[in-house]
Amino acid sequence: MSSQTPLSAPDKLTVPGRGKGLIDVFRQRYLLKLIVKKELRVRYHGSVLGMMWSYVKPATQFVVYFLAMGVFLALGRNHPGYAVYLFSGMVVINYFSEILSNATRTLVWNAPLIKKIYLPREMFPVASIWVAMVHLFPQLLVLLVGTLAYGYIYQSPIPDFMMFARSVGAIFLGTLMVTILSLGLGLIFGTFNVFFRDSENLVDLLLLVAVWMSPVLYPLKMVAENAPAWVYDLYILNPVTIAVELFHYGFWLPITTAPEHMENLLAMTGLGFLVSFVFLLIGQWVFRRHEGNFAQEL
């Protein structure tokens, strides 16, 4: 009579190299923390300024765009608080661009580690989010100081508590929306980049036009007034556009009295999250379908 006993639930065999996707990433937060530290250490290795580049690069970008669009093309002449409007949109674009660009390349960058051991491969795109958040904070700090300075100089009305709470909520929702969308797209393009290195060049091309495809340099009302209705409807389906408007609501609107197309912002926010979650689900499906071949292709 055999003495073997059935395997208990915890001892059941699992398919090697297969996990539970993003769930495993959050279960192994300590490993994620180590990868984030490694990414930051590698990025600033041998750098004199180090984290100061988080201030220098967006500040330089802001000055260039402000001079070109706000001064030379005079968009800021009839747009109160244009500097705050511009920079609040650029913060969103910079955050989105950094996550998507790094998430697309991170699997290739970490090829030696992926080929040696098994760990949730989603760990690397998710680490790109945390690295981008480290760089997001200085930009938000500079933007907040600029917003308060503008309101003080031009004696804009101080928002009440409810307006302040709504502003903080809008900024949080905008950040969360961009995070979900960029992670979903990062999983998709990161998978493609393992097999086709042209994917990272395609992402660079998309990010090159991203600043023009959202109301960063120009007000949203210009699109509503000059584009056909169906073009405008497609335009506001872009979650980055909605996130930019949420940042405008959080930083720009409290210090201005200018009318803006924000009456439908709540509905737009719900739609933006729906689109973002769809991309996240697609990204996770594509990633898990092909991750078994990553080590071989890398």
From TrEMBL:
<keyword id="KW-1133">Transmembrane helix</keyword>
<keyword id="KW-1003">Cell membrane</keyword>
<feature type="domain" description="ABC transmembrane type-2">
    <location>
        <begin position="49"/>
        <end position="290"/>
    </location>
</feature>
<keyword id="KW-0997">Cell inner membrane</keyword>
<protein>
    <recommendedName>
        <fullName>Transport permease protein</fullName>
    </recommendedName>
</protein>
<keyword id="KW-0812">Transmembrane</keyword>
<keyword id="KW-0472">Membrane</keyword>
<feature type="transmembrane region" description="Helical">
    <location>
        <begin position="265"/>
        <end position="287"/>
    </location>
</feature>
<dbReference type="GO" id="GO:0140359">
    <property type="term" value="F:ABC-type transporter activity"/>
</dbReference>
<keyword id="KW-0813">Transport</keyword>
<feature type="transmembrane region" description="Helical">
    <location>
        <begin position="123"/>
        <end position="150"/>
    </location>
</feature>
<comment type="similarity">
    <text>Belongs to the ABC-2 integral membrane protein family.</text>
</comment>
<feature type="transmembrane region" description="Helical">
    <location>
        <begin position="202"/>
        <end position="220"/>
    </location>
</feature>
<dbReference type="InterPro" id="IPR013525">
    <property type="entry name" value="ABC2_TM"/>
</dbReference>
<dbReference type="GO" id="GO:0005886">
    <property type="term" value="C:plasma membrane"/>
</dbReference>
<feature type="transmembrane region" description="Helical">
    <location>
        <begin position="232"/>
        <end position="253"/>
    </location>
</feature>
<feature type="transmembrane region" description="Helical">
    <location>
        <begin position="59"/>
        <end position="75"/>
    </location>
</feature>
<dbReference type="GO" id="GO:0015920">
    <property type="term" value="P:lipopolysaccharide transport"/>
</dbReference>
<dbReference type="Pfam" id="PF01061">
    <property type="entry name" value="ABC2_membrane"/>
</dbReference>
<feature type="transmembrane region" description="Helical">
    <location>
        <begin position="171"/>
        <end position="196"/>
    </location>
</feature>
<dbReference type="InterPro" id="IPR047817">
    <property type="entry name" value="ABC2_TM_bact-type"/>
</dbReference>
